[in-house]
Amino acid sequence: MKKIKVLGSGCAKCSQTAEMIADISEEMGIDVIVKKDTDPQSLLKFHVMKTPAVIIDDELIHSGSVPTRDEVEGWLRD
Amino acid sequence: MFQIFTEFATWLVYGVFGLEADSALGGAVHFFVEDVSKIFVLLVMMIYFIALLRASLDVERVRDYLASKNRSVGYLLGSTFGAITPFCSCSSIPVFLGFTSAGIPLGITMAFLITSPLINEVAVLLLMSLLGWKFTLLYVVVGMTVGIVSGLLLDAMKAERWLQSFAAEALVRGRQMALSNDAAIPGRVLSFSERHAFAKTEAIEIFSRVWKWVVIGVGLGAALHGFVPEGWVETHLGQGQWWSVPVAVLIGIPLYSNATGIIPVMESLLANGLPIGTTLAFCMSTVAASFPEFVLLKQVMQWRLLAVLLVVLLTAFTLVGWIFNFAAPYL
Fold this sequence. Notes:
Chain B: It is a multi-pass membrane protein. Chain B: It is found in: Cell membrane. Chain B: Keywords: Cell membrane, Membrane, Transmembrane, Transmembrane helix. The complex is a heterodimer of chains A (about 80) and B (about 325). Chain A has helices at about 10-30, 40-45, 70-75, and strands spanning about 1-5, 30-35, 55, 60-65. Chain A has about 80 residues and is an alpha+beta fold. Chain A has a single domain (about 1-75), classed as Glutaredoxin (3-Layer(aba) Sandwich). Chain A is globular and about 30 Å long. Chain B is mainly alpha-helical and about 325 residues long. Chain B has one domain. Chain B is built from 16 helices and no strands.
């Protein structure tokens, strides 16, 4: 099961991103764990300068915007 | 060129709404409609064109560029990039950590972060259209100077001692890495359609973020314009009494607005006869020193550093106010 983290604090887009991933995975019937991570040390660890950033299984795959629906579906299918 | 917006407001407010031109309400509503329509049209156009130009500029490239530069020019560059890089306060922390972990000195990072909310394309545009280019130039120079001087002071105090420990460690590691390699991400040449796509997204995004600030700011400005008795401000604060500047700065702290919201208020305060220095001090304090921003920065700074930063900023704004009130007759 994929572990997805959305990095970033204090921005509406971060919550929006996390909710969106949770909703889409549910629609697709794929079990994932989606968590919001507001710890600034995580930003350092993944060298993120633009939030929201998406981490899947400890790998940075997106940063700087709310992802599109297509992008999210693509990540979930892999 | 801006005449059309005045005519539009006259037509709508006095014609369609049927308000009296010489009543307080009519004057205030006219002011509101004229400014909001003018600002909205200019905003969308200008954000688009500026975004076309700066499509290839982002915080990661700014970081690489700053990290490769000598400290002596770093403050000026940090402040300049703060002025031109698109940035919202919710990115303060990732940008702060990104700069810090690249070994960029705290003062240069802070020059960037302090200048950023004070000066941006929306602010410059509003200043130009409401207060003219001379005032705009003055504002930009003062804003950058505040950023640069605050950065220099923080470094002179070795303020990085008061970072949270993980941020301080990142800074040390970053310095060592910066010495061992200086690989920068090469810039990519963007096609026009990529620039257009970026500019369109930017225009929509920035507009949807700032339009309400414009409405609030102009609304306040209009209320001041129509309802504060003519001459009241002039009589009570018009001489640039020395204490009025620190008081204006203190009032500005709990108030929080971005530059977009405050500039129409500035216009109105100036028109009501508030001296230029007091106005600048009040508005810069409102924009750059805010509680939400400080709460965010607490994640990477100890209380001590936040307190120092607050004192530095408040002192800077007070000095700006005094200097301009003093110099105003000679400008």
